[in-house]
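Format notes (please read before filing issues)

Several people have asked whether sequences and structure tokens are stored in separate files. They are not. Every record keeps both together, in the order shown below: the sequence lines, then the token lines. Line labels are part of the format and must not be stripped during preprocessing.
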Amino acid sequence: MSGLVSSLRARPGVVRLGTNGSLADMISVRVQVPEVWDVLRVEAAKSATIHEVKRRALGELMPDEGDVDGFVVKFRGHEVLDEGASLDAAGMRDGSTLLITSRRRRPVK
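Then the structure lines:
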């Protein structure tokens, strides 16, 4: 992923997930969580599941949130229905963006 694109509005540093494979088996994805207005860069094995990325991202961006299942993952504007699928099987490529947002709308204060 381009250094500029991957760093736009993203926290410094990279979260690594399942990095025991070769570099050819890794992809970089951006994870956005609008509830906290933050972006996380994740390097993950192509075989990592969407649920693993979701759990790790919420742990980093919303550590006090215990209800991981209360959030949905969207890719290309559509909810990912099978979070057990690997990143590769879901069609994600280097530079893809995942949006993780609350399943239920929360009131604005």
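For reference, the curators noted about this record: The first helix runs from residue 3 to 7. The helical segments are 3-7, 50-61.
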